[in-house]
């Protein structure tokens, strides 16, 4: 089974702190994603990466940066946390780029989420 | 602008009922479509892909209408365990998945 793990389930930080959220997948997936999920707003894509050291902005990249130094690890960084970044953060990975032999190439596997509270 | 719109519900149905969810998407170039399921306080998980010809997986049937840019999910013989939020998802620009805000289903005995 694919496993996507996130470094923390719950995190409380103060305004202005630098925050690192780590995500690791164990299935050699090429693509990794960071989302935030808020009530009434659904899942919104922050950043994604389709290869090591590659990154693409999603819908709401402002206030965030990412790092992908190894294929299995994708980090989300809040340079200076603010209260409006209080949210559930979900990491995901997918195979994309492989031949679509199974029809499930685009399936994204999600980690359990990190509930971040910024006070 | 890329958007995926869903009726948020909630849909409250008794066990055994048939329920249908609809979803519209704005980008006519979208090529791949999915339904994900998210249980309360859990991460989303793929329920099924949606193919042009329509597809069925047990009690679940997904349909795609490209002309109307419309996707549907039909659940027959609802079970208590079907209670969840169902997310309509569209592949955008061959790279990122765009998620709808979800439709909440509550099945009661």
Describe what you observe in this structure.
The complex is a heterodimer of chains A (119) and B (109). Chain A starts with a strand and ends with a strand. Chain A is built from no helices and eleven strands. Chain A has 119 residues and is mainly beta. Chain A has strands spanning 4-6, 10-13, 19-25, 31-38, 42-49, 56-57, 64-70, 73-78, 87-94, 109-110, 114-118. The radius of gyration of chain A is 14 Å and the shape is globular. In chain A, the strands form two sheets. In chain A, strands 2, 4, 5, 6, 9, 10 and 11 form a seven-stranded mixed beta sheet that branches. A four-stranded antiparallel beta sheet of chain A has the order 1-3-8-7, with no helix packed on it. Helix content of chain A is 0%, strand content 50%. Chain B has strands at residues 4-6, 11-14, 19-25, 33-38, 45-50, 55-57, 60-65, 70-75, 84-92, 96-99, 103-108. Chain B is mainly beta and 109 residues long. In chain B, 0% of the residues lie in helices and 55% in strands. In chain B, the strands form two sheets. In chain B, strands 2, 4, 5, 9, 10 and 11 form a six-stranded mixed beta sheet that branches. In chain B, strands 1-3-8-7-6 form a five-stranded antiparallel beta sheet, with no helix packed on it. Chain B has no helices and eleven strands. The radius of gyration of chain B is 13 Å and the shape is globular. Chains A and B meet through β5 of A and β5 and β10 of B.
């Amino acid at each position: 089974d694919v496993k996507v793990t996130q470094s923390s389930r719950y995190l409380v930080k103060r305004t202005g702190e630098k925050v690192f959220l780590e995500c690791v997948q164990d299935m050699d997936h090429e693509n990794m994603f960071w989302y935030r999920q808020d009530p009434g707003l659904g899942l919104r894509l922050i950043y994604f990466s389709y290869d090591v050291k590659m990154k693409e902005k999603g819908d709401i990249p402002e206030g965030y940066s990412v790092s992908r130094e190894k294929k299995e690890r994708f980090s989300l960084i809040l340079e200076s946390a603010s209260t409006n970044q209080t949210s559930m953060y979900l990491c995901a990975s997918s195979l994309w780029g492989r031949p679509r032999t199974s029809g499930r190439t685009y399936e994204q596997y999600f980690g359990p989420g990190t509930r971040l509270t910024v006070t | 602008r890329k958007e995926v719109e869903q009726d948020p519900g909630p849909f409250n149905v008794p066990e055994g009922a048939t329920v249908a969810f609809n979803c519209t998407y704005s980008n006519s170039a979208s090529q791949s479509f999915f339904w994900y399921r998210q249980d309360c306080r859990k991460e989303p998980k793929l329920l099924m892909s949606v193919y042009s010809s329509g597809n069925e997986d047990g009690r679940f049937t997904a349909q795609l209408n490209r002309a109307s840019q419309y996707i549907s999910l039909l659940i027959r013989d609802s079970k208590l365990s079907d209670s969840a939020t169902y997310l309509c998802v569209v592949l955008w620009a061959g790279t990122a998945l765009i998620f709808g805000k979800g439709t909440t289903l509550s099945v009661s005995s």
